[in-house]
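Entry 14. Structure prediction run on the chain below.
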Amino acid sequence: MVASVGEGRAKQGEQRDSFHWSPLGMFAIRTDPRGDGEYYEGIETVRDISNPILETQSRTSKLIGMARKFKDLSEREILALAIALEEEDGRVYSDFAEGLRETYPATAKLFDDMGAEESGHRASLFETYRQRFGEHIPLIRREDVKGFVQRRPFWLTRPLKISEVRKQAELMELGTRQFYQKAMKQVTDAGIRKLLGDLEEVERKHQVAAEAMSESITPATKKTEDEAQRRLFVLQIVQPGLAGLMDGSVSTLAPVFAAAFATKSSNDAFLVGLAASIGAGISMAFAEALSDDGSMTGRGRPVLRGAVTGLMTATGGIGHTLPFLLKDFHVAFTAAVIVVALELATIAWIRNRYMDTPLLSAAFQVVVGGVLVFVVGIWIGSS
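Output returned:
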């Protein structure tokens, strides 16, 4: 990784600096003026070389000279960079297509086609490079050159949001087009300039296609994508939220009304209900978040699911707890019963609206469960 270094160490108080190039960039070998040895400065890790075999590792680095300026690149390096960019774009489009294939097959097909075109561009660039410079292609990537916007690995997230994917594709094509425009100004070989110009024109068309991607979707495809989006919303938001709301609304009925009937005190019932609601919310949030990571089930990010479930669980429990802030116990109890009825009706409506459960069937299932827990709470509190 480094240039050869002479054996031995500096004398006490002597400063001796030298500069070298490695595949990672420029680094300096500096001498500690106190005579504690030599060390590298400017590589990913800094090595203390107090002895000839370079044993001890340090933890800091200043990363000197790691990125190249675009204007300093040779024609050979520009072509190598273009090959790397086309390969990266093609693989990103392939990942987009794979991530969208199940829910948005029409858009996935568009990205498959764009990825195939990027592979064709790479092949053209490679052929030109081989004719001009030979077989070996130096490793140079976007992160090795100043001025490139570093991409977040958005294509690795699951599930992919189709609107964000289309926007990302538009930005990718714009960035690649600007690269070709800048590269054409720097190269002098006529053949290379022509190839870069042709690719810039193709990228311009790609950019226009990416901008118009939403408009090119047919009504039938749009309907299919809307249905897929709805399924994802139900799977990732509605289902965990409904599970939390049902748990909070039903499971906390027993402790709240048991405490109310046992103490005949609105304040005591409120404190029990508040503790039960918050405790249930925290418990359900962790249970949902730890159930699976969503990579195989498509249920989305576990942190989001856990937050939705926990929030709805706490909301369901606090809903029929708040009436007990009223001082009059009988008024508070009556208000709490009304709130419970509204909660159960809301759960039945959500099941009918998003789960395609018949309204009467959903109402019957929810009411039976709620009434059973409600009765158990009153029975325990009155005993």
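The CA atoms of residues 278 and 340 lie 17 Å apart.
Filed with the rest of this week's runs.
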